[in-house]
Amino acid sequence: MISKTIMNRRSVFPAQYNNQPITKEEISTILESANWAPTHKRTEPWRFKVFHGTSQIALGKFIAETYKQTTTNFSEFTYSKFMDNPVKAGCVIAICMQRDPKESLPEWEEIAATAMAVQNMWLTAHEMNIGAYWASPGVIKYMDKLIQMEQGEQCLGFFYMGKFDDELPEGTRKSTIEEKTTWI
Prior knowledge:
Elements: H1 2-8, H2 24-34, E1 46-51, H3 55-70, H4 76-88, E2 91-98, H5 107-127, E3 130-135, E4 153-163
Helix pairs in contact: 2-5, 3-4
């Protein structure tokens, strides 16, 4: 049942990944799920740039060096994490959103549609026993320096994926749905 998958999905971070590869077929299955997200006026704004294999090394170097060049509060720990995490992952996908050139709907709707596409990816990955994590470091605003971006396209973050061995913790929420719901 889908509700069980939703409740059991967790963020799984690069430090938790084992070294088992993720195949292109597995990545394609996950991306196909993304393509079926709801989209107002069928703008289908989601775009994905897949870093798989040696391109993950280049991504790590780019993130780390861009962080080093643009931060005012440099941390060697953060620099190393930015360098290493893409290589620890089985795959990293840059989550991008292509704004409708006609601006026929509010930008937030296209961002929301892209987020729904990522949720589809996350649930599919979870069902395939692939852990995932959406990171949105400040360096994403510089992604056009590494990869081709179309006019109106922006990077919203990185979707790290990797296979893992550990059991995932039980989920919790700060409050119940009843506390967040008003019946009218």
